[in-house]
Amino acid sequence: MTSRRLHLAVALVRLWTRAYTWHMPADVRDGRRAEIESDLWEFLQDADAHREVVPDVHLYARLLRGMPHDVLWRVEHAEALRSRARQRVMGAAAVWTSVAILIAVLWLLPLVRQDALPSTLSTATPPASAPATPTVCPPPEAAALISRSAAATVAR
Amino acid sequence: MRRKPGSLVPLELAICVCAAELRSRGIDEFHGYDIAKRLGDESQHRLLTAYGTLYRALGRLAEMGLLQSRWEDPEIPARENRPGRRMYTLTPAGEAALEEARNAAAALDRAPRHRRRVVPA
């Protein structure tokens, strides 16, 4: 009878451990399960531990008192995982944004290069064969008038 | 209530104390059940520390760098026909934290106790 009750207590400890480690990363989950398994084995081998308290009652007491901490442990790990996932998403977003900017720069660069501009704009000196066109310079009075009107526009 | 980062709760401190005592006896490594037994003996409790409480505290101490853990060589449990043990060791940082906690406790003991002020109603 005692043995059956003890087996039931052990099974419940295992079941609870499986429940609160369910869907956790494999290393964390397996680590905790293996640690509890080792603890159970040590307890069952330890005759001293069975002297004062009935073994299955002892197991239930350890299980029940530790349940809130098990839940908190899971919550802490879930938070850590979420924050790690958020960091991964942010990192990926930063990398993709940088790649997009780089591609845009590489695509736009040939368009803004001097060589790519139309020949009429890019050639500073007219070809020798072309007839020389007189440079039109505004007279000094007109230049002063233009600069005054520009300043007035800016001030407005 | 949130704990201060880096501060130790009584159970964590008790684990460090037990680990330091083990080391003074020449035992560098211990496993979870081992420390649960020792904590029970120290506090003279009939019940061992609960699973969740104990392993969460051990995990936190390992995360804080006060304990170091490793899984024992799988050949040993296979030979002894038992589950593998996760072995913990007190790190130098753990020893320093323990020393600091002891100094803080000693300083608190030495500090003069102030009388309570009686505020008239």
Structure overview:
The complex is a heterodimer of chains A (156) and B (121). Chain A is mainly alpha-helical and 156 residues long. Chain A has one domain (2-115). Chain A is 78% helix and 0% strand. With 121 residues, chain B is mainly alpha-helical. Chain B has one domain: Orthogonal Bundle (Arc Repressor Mutant, subunit A), CATH 1.10.10.10. Classes of the chains: A mainly alpha (156), B mainly alpha (121).
SSE map:
The complex is a heterodimer of chains A (156) and B (121).
Chain A: H1 2-20, H2 26-45, H3 49-52, H4 55-112, H5 119-122, H6 140-155
Helix pairs in contact in A: 1-2, 1-4
Chain B: H1 10-24, E1 29-30, H2 32-43, H3 51-63, E2 67-71, H4 75-80, E3 86-90, H5 92-110
Antiparallel strand pairs in B: 1-3, 2-3
Global geometry of chain A: rod-shaped
Distance between the termini of chain B: 32 Å
Number of domains of chain A: 1
Tell me the β content of chain A. under 5%
> What is the β-strand count of chain A?
0
Percentage of β-strand residues of chain B? 5-15%
Sheet with most strands of chain A: none
Query: What is the third-level CATH name, the topology of chain B?
Result: Arc Repressor Mutant, subunit A
Number of DSSP helical runs of chain A: 6
Rg of chain A computed from alpha carbons, rounded to a whole number of angstroms: 40 Å
Uncertain residue ranges of chain A: none
Helix content of chain B: 40-55%
Global outline of chain B: elongated
Percent helix of chain A, as a range, is over 70%
DSSP helix count of chain B?
5
Beta strands of chain B, count: 3
Give the CATH level 1 class of chain B: Mainly Alpha
Low-confidence segments of chain B, ≥5 residues, pLDDT <50?
Answer: none
Biggest interface goes to: A-B, 33 and 24 residues
Which superfamily, in CATH terms, is the homologous superfamily of chain B? Winged helix-like DNA-binding domain superfamily/Winged helix DNA-binding domain
Total number of domains of chain B? 1
